[in-house]
Inverse folding.
């Protein structure tokens, strides 16, 4: 799963796949059906994708990135995360088919990279709003990585459990647990660069 500029054909395939998934599970969607709805030929489909699952993975990646990155701010990140998890919960068959078709390491790298973009925006916004906080680049990167891994850990656990837990309640708890802590971490690294000097 990766990000690149979409062609008109890819967008047509994505729209067609979403329409078909409202009627049937991913395993029952055929290339012929997809081409008919997208009004493209099979050659065009196979130019862009290897098979139906490959197309579904591309659509899934775009949906994940859109939900997260459109809300990449301190005030809205939880809204984006909630929309993402609700989307996955409501499209569980597609999400599971895509995730099961990929090595777990690839799924992890994709989610981590996307969540890191979100957390980078959050941290940089906080630093902009609090110019008195002077944080070393390595400490800034550590804060971004720490909270990226924390959020991804919850998503990974949720996925491993079959997405059974209510996504609204889960995101509410994640948001509540993290509220204020990113800023507090930046304040600590401002006072103690590199984490040095903190009492143990």
């Amino acid at each position: 799963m990766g990000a690149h500029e979409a062609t008109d054909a890819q967008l047509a395939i994505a729209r067609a796949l979403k329409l078909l998934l409202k009627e049937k599970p991913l395993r029952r969607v055929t290339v012929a059906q997809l081409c008919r709805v997208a009004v493209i030929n099979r050659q065009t489909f196979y130019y862009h994708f290897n098979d139906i699952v490959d197309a579904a993975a591309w659509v899934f990646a775009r949906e994940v990135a859109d939900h997260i990155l459109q809300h990449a701010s301190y005030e809205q990140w939880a809204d984006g995360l909630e929309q993402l998890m609700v989307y996955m919960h409501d499209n569980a068959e597609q999400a599971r088919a895509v995730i099961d078709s990929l090595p777990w390491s690839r799924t992890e790298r994709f989610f981590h990279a996307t969540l890191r973009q979100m957390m980078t925006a959050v941290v940089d916004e906080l630093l902009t709003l609090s110019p008195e906080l002077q944080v070393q680049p390595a400490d800034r990167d550590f804060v971004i990585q720490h909270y990226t891994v924390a959020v991804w850990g919850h998503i990974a656990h949720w996925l491993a459990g079959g997405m059974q837990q209510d996504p609204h309640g889960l995101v509410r708890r994640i948001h509540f647990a993290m509220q204020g802590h990113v800023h507090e971490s930046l304040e600590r690294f401002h006072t103690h660069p590199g984490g040095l000097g903190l009492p143990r």
